[in-house]
Design brief:
Distance between the termini: 17 Å
Shape: globular
Order of helices and strands: EHEEHE
Structural class: alpha+beta
Number of helices: 2
Helix content: 10-25%
Strand content: 15-25%
Bound molecules: FE3-S4 cluster
Length: 77
Amino acid sequence: NNFAIVDQDSCIACGACNSEAPEIFDMDDNGIAGVIYEGDSNRGVTPIAEDLLEELQEAVENCPTNCIQLSATPFAS
Ligand code: F3S
């Protein structure tokens, strides 16, 4: 599973994902997270590199609202 997207309606802007995986997640001006990896713009269409999957998993596990979704295939955008 190396495609990721944040369900931004469920994000409570805690910032854990950005702490765990700063290359994958960043927050907008309101603190709401999105996937910023290689210009993905939270579309979930950019495959995340193998060597980042461990921190991706950490981010998923540390998100208090479980709003980071993973998929083996690109999300529809
Ligand atoms: Fe939001 Fe979860 Fe990150 S609440 S800021 S997506 S850890």
